[in-house]
Amino acid sequence: MAFSYSNELLEAFTQTSGGNANVTTQPSDNCHTIIIFNTDSTNSVRVGIVANGVGLTTANSALITAGSTLTLRIGTYEFRPFGRFTTATRVLRLLAVAGTPDVNFQYLNSVGNTPP
Question: Which of 3, 71, 72, 107 is deepest in the core (most CB within 10 A)?
């Protein structure tokens, strides 16, 4: 299996309340940290790493209140218990609690990793 390298650093994602959505740009194999900023001034969002199609709940996600930031240290591919972010394993999902908040995902990627 090929190592999936990316230099993608930022994903701006807007989600309307009432439905879960996979973030368009999923973290790559060399992504070790995701910084998530809820830019909305009034609405909270839920964010989680779940199996594709699984809805976010209080048990499997984190609540990011309006104007707040969450840092997820996920480790690069070879250190993640679930491996790659793919629709077959795990995906990064977002759920707007209300309104239509804009959320920024910043991916911190390693350079020079040796593929597994």
Answer: 107
* Cα separation values, 22 from 10, 15, 25, 41, 49, Å: 15, 10, 9, 22, 10
91 Cβ contact list (under 8 Å, min separation 6): 22, 23, 26, 49, 50, 51, 52, 85
Tens digit of pLDDT per residue, the chain (116 long)?
455 556 667 677 888 888 899 998 899 888 999 999 999 999 999 999 999 999 999 999 999 999 999 999 998 888 888 889 998 889 999 999 999 999 999 998 887 544 44
Q: Which of 10, 2, 17 is nearest to 86 (CA)?
A: 2
Asked if 16 and 96 touch (Cβ cutoff 8 Å), the reply is: yes
Chain position carrying tokens 């909305």: 40
Contact between 5 and 78 under an 8 Å Cβ cutoff? The reply is no
- Name the helix (H) or strand (E) containing 7: none
DSSP state of 40: -
